[in-house]
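User: Could you check the structure of this?
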Amino acid sequence: MDFGDALWWSVTTVATVGYGDRFPTTTEGRLVAAGLMVAGIGLLAVVTAALASWFVDRIGRAEEQTRGNIAELAEEVRGLRLALDRRSAKDAPASVTPDGGVPESAPPPGSA
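Assistant: Sure, the predicted structure tokens are below.
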């Protein structure tokens, strides 16, 4: 086996193409085949990178939207809690403290 055969073997092994049953025998044919293998691997790499970039971008946008939705919901919950606290304070009888107890100055129930 000469250097050219060894180089051909290494290129086809790295590219994982064919079974070795058909292969170019001339130097020019091997150069063209090696160039096609490298171009094929490069094309596959570019397509894979573009797809991965698309996924990362799409997931990033979805996460940003989710964070925005969470912030809006948190603000809405704060507003609802405030409205509920105001309504509870407005509807509570004067003789009951906000914590549900009876103030000391209030007359005992049933004595009025």
